[in-house]
Amino acid sequence: MFLSSSTGILILQWLLFLTALFPSSVTADSTRKNFLQCLSQHQRSSCFTARNSSFSAILKSTAQNLRFLMPYVQKPQAIFMPASETDVQAAVRCGKQLGIQLRVRSGGHDYEGVSYASEMGEPFVVIDMAKLRSVTVDVDGNSAWVEAGATLGELYYRISESSSVNGFPAGVCTSLGVGGHIAGGGYGTMMRKYGLGADHILDVRMVDADGNILDRESMKEDLFWAIRGGGGGSFGIILAWKVQLVPVPEKVTVFAVRKTLEQGLTKLINKWQQVAHKLDDNLFIRVIVQPNKNNNNNNTVIGLFKALFLGQTDPLIQIMAHSFPELGLAEEDCTEMSWIESVLYSFGYPTGTSPQVLLYGKPLFKPNYFKAKSDFVRDLIPTSGLEGIWSWIMDGDGSLIILNPYGGIMSQIPESQISFPHRNGTLFQIYYQVSWQDGNITAARHMDWIRKLYSFMRPYVSKSPRKAYVNYRDLDLGMNKEGNTNYVEASAWGRKYFGDNFKRLVQIKTKVDPDNFFRHEQSIPPHLNFNG
Ligand SMILES: Cc1cc2nc3c(=O)[nH]c(=O)nc-3n(C[C@H](O)[C@H](O)[C@H](O)COP(=O)(O)OP(=O)(O)OC[C@H]3O[C@@H](n4cnc5c(N)ncnc54)[C@H](O)[C@@H]3O)c2cc1C
Ligand SMILES: *[C@@H]1O[C@H](CO)[C@@H](O)[C@H](O)[C@H]1NC(C)=O
Ligand SMILES: *[C@@H]1O[C@H](CO)[C@@H](O)[C@H](O)[C@H]1NC(C)=O
Ligand SMILES: *[C@@H]1O[C@H](CO)[C@@H](O)[C@H](O)[C@H]1NC(C)=O
Ligand SMILES: *[C@@H]1O[C@H](CO)[C@@H](O)[C@H](O)[C@H]1NC(C)=O
Entry's SUPFAM superfamilies (predicted)? Predict the structure, then answer.
């Protein structure tokens, strides 16, 4: 091994620390020796063991889904917060040497909590990237290096601070970590014009399963292909991405038009299905569908048509009058603003919020308990299907559906360009979510609701296999008949997330991490048999 002396010291510290956690793995002699050496060293990175009084605060710090902080869910033995790339290498080398499972957390938004909780039963340590969050923008080079622990909001803010005519096309939610988000694709309001975050990666720095730092050149194109869309936690620990900036106008235009069933929502969504994927690439109109329950017992469904247009009001009004006049978009509905203001608007920050809020790293919404699923729609959903959805929505409580239009450049990029596969032929993506506040009390009812809605949707969505978005991770997809998650037979969810790209992902995993060091409930498995 070629290690710098500081890496060596860190490894010793780790050996000591891991020995305390897993006493059987190292002899008492080496423990003492390591201990003595460790004492003489200055600790550079924080490591919180479960006995540390700050442990639970650190664990919670970015955990978005409270379902995975429940007492009966398996927690890490410790959380390590590397302060440098060398620390990450040391963690991987020690973890590998001692056979300790590591999990990586950047923004903590994983839907099934696999970055900080486990359903696999083995003890594990979380490598939390929160201290590695610098963003360096190179305006002349049209690019930026962003460390894995930075949030999307930090990246967007730093870009806008350096240039009023550049942006980056990734997620709507500004508290996502770039480490996990881009690894799974990363779509947002500029998807129809520019594609995904993962479509705009120029280079990378990643620690592999041997603890080496690789970049695009040294990892070769196969692995570079796999980490752009193949989902986090399978191939290595992303240290930083080099992203390519995209041009945005000085002024963009946004609108949000709200319609209830009584105001003709069904007809409008019918029309939206036909046009949203064909509109000018500069226009992205998503529909956020929620129940509206009032005291008069006349419940209804509200659809919010929320849009970003990369241009000004006049051409937007013309496009809408020509392609979607039924929505009745008027000048008063439209607001022109800078791109960074539109980032706040699209996610739902109140008007007038300062973009600096993006630097605080705090999520806009309080963490709650939730479960989500996704679908891709390739054929128009008939009116009867839409009406079925409305009754599910009205039945649910804490329910939310978002329809995200595809088309534009998403149809031009070949399915095999990067490992994210959902491209041409997709009209729109559906996101289903249910959330609640009372922990375990109503969990079963809510979980049951979303699973039943998902079965109801089967006839209306992509088939053989039914596709899903890996960043909307759903452990139900790997469930066997007994209701247990089947970790071994990954082909069930693999083709749903990755289509024909799954096979190549497995081949690459087998080559770069045959021992399956980087693993979680739905990581890409090595050595999978494809029998048909
Ligand atoms: C409120 C909310 C809104 C969302 N909005 C969008 C959206 O608009 N668009 C969209 O595309 N998605 C969206 N998502 C989904 C989001 O993209 C995924 O949850 C994504 O995986 C989050 O990345 P993270 O780093 O925050 O999460 P984490 O929980 O930290 O990580 C997610 C996965 O990546 C792995 N991982 C984390 N860091 C690294 C690393 N440095 N190297 C390698 N693997 C790593 C983890 O082990 C885990 O498997 C949203 C999620 C939530 C909860
Ligand atoms: C908890 O861990 C941190 C980081 O390693 C350390 O600085 C602190 O002293 C620990 N606190 C206790 C009470 O052990
Ligand atoms: C719902 O109730 C409100 C308030 O009483 C009323 O104005 C509205 O017309 C009702 N809508 C329907 C569809 O009955
Ligand atoms: C996308 O699919 C449609 C219909 O299946 C086809 O006509 C079109 O040529 C495809 N476009 C690309 C860029 O592959
Ligand atoms: C509720 O908690 C119990 C343990 O207290 C657990 O076994 C069960 O799976 C939980 N139910 C749900 C739906 O999370």
Answer: FAD-binding/transporter-associated domain-like
